[in-house]
Amino acid sequence: MKCWIGGLGVLGPGLPGWAASEAMLAGTQPWQMAEAAAAPPSILPPTERRRTGPTVRFALAAAAEATEREPDRGALETVFATSNGDGATIAGILDAMHTPDGAISPTLFHNSVHNAAAGYWHIAVGSTAPSVSLGGHDGTFAAGLLSAVTGVVARGRAVLLCAYDTPLPPPLAECRPTAFPFATAMVLRPAQVAGTRAALTLRYVAEPLAEPVPPTEGLDALAAGNPAARALPLLRALAARRETLIGLALDETAHLELQVTPC
Asked: Can you give the pTM of this predicted structure?
């Protein structure tokens, strides 16, 4: 399957947005670890904005940056991919269940569903376009990319892919460690247009990915700390505008092969 990559967004440790991070991702400027934070999303009306937590804010920050040059954000189909969902909200609900009255805030429940970020995005841009929200453990970014590219090819429409995860609070963190928050987004298109960065050819391979020993330091090591950060090899190739072949694990039995060709 083939598509083209347009707008990009990223928010993570030492990566405060695509425009500010492109040179670091390309390796032409040094990268340093720094805490990442997302402000309340200005694209939302004030009432909804106040209800968002860090997980939704990271997702919407990346999605907003990737689509800032889109003439109609609401026309984009979307795929939102997250392994952990909003763990802080889930923890809040579990804590509330152990109080004497066991009452759960409607806002907490509203934010606990796996498609909460997608719902806020579609409210923000006034979209009724198709949307998919999914998770795939450590292969979540790969699963989201497969879903998004399939949508582009099958329906001939542009798709916004947004992958995001934030750390879980204790005691959930003991079962699913996530080292830092990270979000990335990209607009995938059925044809090349002005501003297109690269062509992406995707192939599903029904075999385990033979992964090399992961790096232990530097920007490349971030990929192991957050499921959404598995996007970093692709982001780095796009930033450097270099042709490359990338393998992304889906699970223990299959992987994706990505051919990136700069435009």
From this structure: 0.94
